[in-house]
TrEMBL record:
GO cellular component terms listed in the entry, alphabetical order: mitochondrial matrix
Chief place of localization: mitochondrion
Protein name: Probable electron transfer flavoprotein subunit alpha
Keywords assigned: Electron transport, FAD, Flavoprotein, Mitochondrion, Transport
Protein's cellular compartments: Mitochondrion matrix
PANTHER family in alphabetical order: ELECTRON TRANSFER FLAVOPROTEIN ALPHA, ELECTRON TRANSFER FLAVOPROTEIN SUBUNIT ALPHA, MITOCHONDRIAL
Binding site for FAD: 229, 254-255, 268-272, 285-292, 306
A Pfam family recorded for this sequence: ETF
Amino acid sequence: MQFNQFSQPHQTRPIFQRFYASASGNSSLLVVEHRNGAVDGSTLNALTAAQALGGDITAIVAGGAPETVAKEIAKYNGITKVLVAKNDAYSHNLPETLAPLLVEAQKKLGFSHVFAGHTAFGKNVLPRVAALLDVAAISDITGIEGADTFVRPIYAGNAIATVKSSDSIKIITVRGTAFPAATTAQNDPAHEAAPEADTAALSEWIGEELIKSDRPDLNSAKRVISGGRGMKNGENFQMLYDMADKIGAAVGASRAAVDAGYVDNSLQIGQTGKIVAPELYIAVGISGAIQHLAGMKDSKTIVAINKDAEAPIFQVADYGLVEDLFKAVPELTQKL
Ligand SMILES: Cc1cc2nc3c(=O)[nH]c(=O)nc-3n(C[C@H](O)[C@H](O)[C@H](O)COP(=O)(O)OP(=O)(O)OC[C@H]3O[C@@H](n4cnc5c(N)ncnc54)[C@H](O)[C@@H]3O)c2cc1C
């Protein structure tokens, strides 16, 4: 096997700079996403964004039994207060019930900024909050240039926009890969009950089907191996799982592989899937369409295995192997 080193035109590093507010007056509400009694990693990235802004940061934790999560988030650097909204109506993260709660909190406590991770949860809830407050939602930010000025990718990451908002309240979702996770400190902020809000929503939670996996989580894995249409079918993904097991990697996929039914859509990486930036990304049988690159081009080292030397994935790859994947993957797995 021979690997060729490619140039690295993809390495547009996330923009992250600390904005020192002048006696800022900023006051942020951090919406805490949590699951099974633990804070979701995306919230810790959003917290770093809020810290970069400066000013007070109040975390809000809503749920049927939010106490454990409230205690956990309180430990993080920069949290000045924790609002606890305990109500069974908040147990299932329904945006129809959460949005009025966040609006009430903003109205009573006058936050200048509301932050959440740019996850399915954040994307679901925050635009509603923005609409109810009659302000624009500023989504998927990768940088903060000031209290009203934010950086965000557009056109599937092909252009970077710097947007200035004239709204009095900024409702923001944060791209997790652009901000490091916040760290814990010797923190002991006050806990308060969140303001009461109307929980009589129009929608009702019926049930959910979650894919359970013992593998590393795609969003936080340091190594990711993804398969595309070139894998030919779902059974062949076993080759990628075997390689992933050797190096403790998560497995992802292109949309073509998901649409063809090879794997579940929770594995999809790209513009309409997950955005990842692991230390190592191995793309197997993936052509490198811009919509796929939008989800992985900030990975530190990109390896591509493709039998077509002209495949666009090689333009962003640090290491490229022009080879039939059915020969290359088992050989590589054996050598790892
Ligand atoms: C609005 C919109 C949103 C989209 N969002 C996403 C998204 O989030 N994520 C995403 O991935 N796509 C997305 N797409 C789809 C995207 O445009 C591409 O169609 C898709 O990424 C192609 O997937 P692929 O590379 O697996 O398939 P293909 O483009 O078909 O490439 C398959 C590759 O496998 C190689 N190959 C085949 N057999 C072998 C073999 N035996 N050994 C080695 N190599 C082999 C081929 O040379 C080829 O390069 C989106 C498209 C649109 C319009």
